[in-house]
Specification:
The complex is a heterodimer of chains A (271) and B (356).
Chain A lengths: L31 H14 L6 E5 L14 E4 L5 H11 L5 E7 H7 L1 H10 L4 E6 L29 H4 L5 H5 L7 E6 L3 H17 L5 E6 L3 H4 L3 H15 L4 E3 L22
Parallel strand pairs in A: 1-2, 1-3, 3-4, 4-6, 5-6
Antiparallel strand pairs in A: 5-7
Helix pairs in contact in A: 1-7, 3-4
Chain B lengths: L5 E4 H11 L4 E4 L7 H9 L6 E4 L3 H13 L4 E5 L1 H5 L2 H9 L5 E6 L15 H5 L10 E3 L4 H18 L3 E6 H5 L1 E4 L26 E2 L6 H17 L6 E4 L7 E4 L2 H16 L4 E6 L1 E3 L3 H8 L4 E6 L5 H9 L5 E5 L8 H17 L1
Parallel strand pairs in B: 2-3, 2-4, 4-5, 5-7, 6-7, 11-12, 11-14, 14-15
Antiparallel strand pairs in B: 1-8, 6-13, 10-12
Helix pairs in contact in B: 1-2, 1-7, 3-5, 10-13
Classes of the chains: A alpha/beta (271), B alpha/beta (356).
Bound molecules: iron/sulfur cluster.
Iron/sulfur cluster binds next to helix 8 of chain A.
C-alpha cells in the first residue's frame, strides 16, 4: 500500500500542467522531450497558458500538438512561421504565439517563411531544434548536417562540394534588422538545459517587442545511429564548434537601423 | 454608401464586398490580373483595425489564411492561376483541418506562365477538389460585377457555415470591367466559433487545428465525415436559366464572362428568329445539375462555350449523356470567343438539326 506523504515532506518537483498526460512518442534519449518541457515550464511560470497559441511543424515533432496543453495549430511542412503570422496578426496583442520547428522544416523547405517572418519582425517566438538530420523520415541529410556526416542520403558523408556547408540559421537571421532576440543553446548537458530554459523565457518575455528566435542543438540518437550518452558527446564535439552557443542579438545589442543612407523616397504622385 | 449605386471596377468591388462581409484580414501576393484587390485592401483595411499583409509568396499567403482562419476571423486572399496553383497544398490543409477562408482566383491564360489575358482554364482544377486527398470546396462563378459583390458575402457565409474554404472564380475581363453596383444593407452574419485557437480559457479543453490522423481508421472516419459535409453542400447549387421558358431548340452553356458574351449572342440570334437560351452555372461546384435536368428533355441540342478547351463541357456531357447532342466551342490562351463566333456556331448547329 502506498503511504500518504507525511505532512512535513516538501514537494520538490511537479510536472508542469502545460504538458498533457499523453505519452511522448519520441525515441529514448531524444532531446525533443526536454525542449517540450522547458517551453511548457516557461508558459506555466509566466502564467500565460490561456493566452498562448502554439504552432507545430512536420517532422519528428509533428505530434507536438498532442503534448502542449494550449490552443495549437498543426502547420504544413516549413510553413509554421506563416501560420504563426496569420494567428499573430488577427488575435489581440496580449497573446503569445510560438512555433516549434526542426531543421528540415525550418532551414530547408521553410527557409522562405522563417526569413520573411523574421524580417517583418513578427511578434512570435520560434524554437528551432537543430539535430543535423531528418529524424522522422529515417535519418536523411538535413541543411544543418555537418561536413562529412553520414546519413542515409549522404552515405559517404556530406560532400560539401556537392551539397554545400551546413546552414547557420542564427548567423543568417542576425543580418536582419528586426529580430530582438537571436540565440543558440544546447540540450547536451544539465548546464546547457538550464541556459536553454533561460533563453526560452527571455524569448517569450521579449515576444511582444518583436521576433524572437532560440535555436537548440539537439540529439537524434536514432538518426545518428549511436547511444544517447554517445549522442550528447557527439553533439558537444561536432556540432558546437560549427554552431557556436551564443546570444547573437538581444535588446541593447540591436543593429543600427537608422540607415546611413538617405534614399530619395519621392515616387509616383509625390514626385 | 449602402443601397446607393456606385460605378466600380470588378476587382475593387470584390474587395469592398469582402470588407462589408466582415472580412478585415487579407494576406496575398501580387500577380496580374488581380493586383487591384490587394492594393484596395492595403488602403482600406488598416484604418479598420484589420490586417493587410503582403506575403513573401502564395505559399506563405495560404498558410497565413490557415493561421488566421484557425484563430476564428474571416480572412481571404486573391490571386491568379499560377499563384493559385501554388496554394493547392495549403488549400488541402484548410479542408483537412476544417478552416474557413475565401480564395479569389482571377483566372489567366495557361499552362505554365501562359499570359495575363482572361481565361477559364482552371475550371477542372478548381472544381475537382483543388488539392491532394479526398476533398471538395464550393466554387462560385459570378458573371457580372454586381454578382461578384453578391457572391463575396455568400462565400464568407458558406465558408463559416461548412467550415471549409470557398473559391470565387472570375477572369481578367470581370476584374477590369466597370459596372454600377450596390452593396447589401445587411450586417454580416456572425458565426459562433468555439473551435478557434484564440487562447485556451481555463473553462474549456484546448482547441487544435489539425489535419493529421496517423491511424488509418481514424483518418478514414475523418474523411468520411468530411464527405458527408461535401454531400450536404449539394443544396448550395445555383444556376441561371435565361430565355429557356419557351423551351428553345438550342441551349448555350457558359459561365462567368463567357455567359455575358453568350447573352449578347442569344439576343441577336433571337432577333434573327432562332430559338436559343442559356444555362449558366453560378456554382461551378457543386455542379448545378438540378437546374439543368428540366432543360434536357425540351432542348434539341446543347452548345457549351468556354474560354478553355473543353472543361465545363465534361460536366454537361456527364449529365446529358446520350439523351441530347452536346457540342463545344472554346478558345484558349487568353483568346475570348466573340459574339460573332458564337452566332456562327449556333447557326451551324441549327442547320445540322434542320437537316437531321
Ligand atoms: S528520430 Fe531522432 S529526433 Fe526523431 S524522435 Fe527519434 S531521436 Fe528524436
Amino acid at each position: 500500500m502506498i503511504e500518504p506523504l507525511a505532512t512535513d515532506e516538501k514537494v520538490v518537483f511537479e510536472r508542469t500542467e502545460v504538458l498533457t498526460d499523453h505519452a511522448l512518442h519520441y525515441c529514448p534519449g531524444c532531446t525533443h522531450g526536454i525542449a517540450h518541457r522547458l517551453i511548457a515550464e516557461v508558459i506555466e511560470e509566466m502564467d500565460i497558458q490561456d493566452r498562448t497559441i502554439g504552432v507545430c511543424p512536420v517532422g519528428c515533432s509533428v505530434l507536438a500538438y498532442q503534448y502542449f496543453d494550449v490552443d495549437i495549430q498543426q502547420a504544413a511542412h516549413g510553413r509554421a512561421p506563416a501560420v504563426a503570422t496569420g494567428i499573430r496578426r488577427v488575435l489581440p496583442p496580449d497573446r503569445y504565439v510560438f512555433t516549434y520547428q526542426g531543421d528540415g522544416d525550418l532551414a530547408s523547405i521553410g527557409m522562405g517563411e522563417i526569413l520573411h517572418a523574421a524580417n517583418r519582425g513578427e511578434k512570435i517566438t520560434v524554437i528551432f531544434l537543430n539535430n543535423a538530420i531528418y529524424g522522422m523520415t529515417g535519418g536523411q541529410m538535413a541543411p544543418t548536417t555537418l561536413p562529412g556526416q553520414k546519413t542515409t542520403t549522404s552515405p559517404f558523408g556530406r560532400d560539401t562540394a556537392q551539397t554545400g556547408h551546413p546552414i547557420r540559421m542564427c548567423e543568417m537571421l542576425n543580418t536582419l534588422v528586426e529580430p530582438v532576440l537571436i540565440a543558440r543553446g544546447s540540450l547536451s548537458s544539465p548546464k546547457g538545459i538550464n541556459r536553454a530554459k533561460k533563453l526560452i523565457r527571455q524569448a517569450f518575455e521579449l515576444q511582444h517587442q518583436g521576433f524572437t528566435f532560440v535555436e537548440l542543438l539537439s540529439t537524434c540518437p536514432t538518426g545518428w545511429g549511436i547511444t544517447p550518452t554517445d549522442a550528447v558527446k557527439w553533439l558537444d564535439r561536432n556540432m558546437t564548434p560549427f554552431f557556436p552557443l551564443q546570444v547573437f542579438r538581444e535588446p541593447g545589442a540591436m543593429p543600427d537601423a537608422s540607415h546611413k543612407y538617405a534614399p530619395d523616397l519621392k515616387v509616383r504622385d509625390e514626385a | 454608401m449602402a443601397g446607393q449605386r456606385l460605378l466600380m471596377k470588378g476587382t475593387e468591388a470584390i474587395a469592398e464586398a469582402a470588407i462589408r462581409a466582415g472580412c478585415h484580414h487579407f494576406f496575398g501576393y501580387p500577380i496580374t490580373p488581380q493586383t487591384e484587390i490587394p492594393e484596395y485592401m492595403s488602403v482600406r483595411l488598416p484604418p479598420l483595425g484589420g490586417t493587410y499583409l503582403q506575403a513573401e509568396s502564395e505559399v506563405a499567403a495560404i498558410n497565413m489564411l490557415y493561421g488566421a482562419g484557425g484563430a476564428g476571423v474571416r480572412v481571404m486572399t486573391s490571386s491568379s492561376s499560377p499563384g493559385v496553383a501554388l496554394m493547392s497544398e495549403g488549400f488541402s490543409y484548410l479542408v483537412g483541418a476544417e478552416v474557413p477562408a475565401v480564395i479569389v482566383n482571377i483566372m489567366r491564360g495557361g499552362p505554365g506562365l501562359g499570359n495575363i489575358a482572361p481565361a477559364q482554364g482552371d475550371y477542372l482544377e478548381m472544381t475537382r477538389g483543388f488539392g491532394h486527398g479526398d476533398m471538395h470546396a464550393i466554387v462560385l462563378a459570378p458573371s457580372t460585377v454586381q454578382e461578384a459583390v453578391d457572391v463575396m458575402g455568400l462565400a464568407f457565409d458558406l465558408a463559416d457555415e461548412y467550415r471549409n474554404p470557398v473559391v470565387v472564380i472570375g477572369d481578367g475581363l470581370l476584374g477590369q470591367m466597370m459596372e454600377p453596383v450596390s452593396f447589401p444593407d445587411t450586417e454580416p452574419k456572425v458565426f459562433d466559433k468555439p473551435w478557434a485557437t484564440t487562447g485556451k480559457a481555463k473553462s474549456r479543453p484546448r482547441n487544435i487545428t489539425n489535419s493529421l490522423y496517423l491511424d488509418a481508421d481514424q483518418l478514414e472516419a475523418h474523411v468520411r465525415d468530411l464527405d458527408v459535409k461535401f454531400q450536404r453542400m449539394d443544396v448550395e447549387q445555383r444556376a441561371e436559366c435565361w430565355m429557356t421558358d419557351d423551351h428553345p431548340e438550342i441551349v448555350i452553356v457558359a459561365y462567368g464572362t463567357m455567359a455575358r458574351i453568350a447573352k449578347t449572342a442569344i439576343r441577336q440570334l433571337r432577333a434573327k428568329g432562332l430559338s436559343v437560351g442559356l444555362y449558366r452555372p453560378i456554382t461551378a461546384w457543386p455542379f448545378p445539375s438540378r437546374a439543368l435536368e428540366p432543360l434536357v428533355e425540351p432542348t434539341r441540342a446543347f452548345l457549351t462555350v468556354e474560354m478553355s478547351l473543353g472543361q465545363l463541357v465534361q460536366d454537361i456531357r456527364a449529365q446529358v449523356g446520350r439523351r441530347r447532342p452536346v457540342s463545344f466551342y472554346g478558345r484558349a490562351g487568353g483568346v475570348v470567343p466573340t459574339v460573332e463566333e458564337i452566332i456562327s456556331q449556333v447557326e451551324l448547329l441549327h442547320a445540322s438539326l434542320a437537316a437531321a
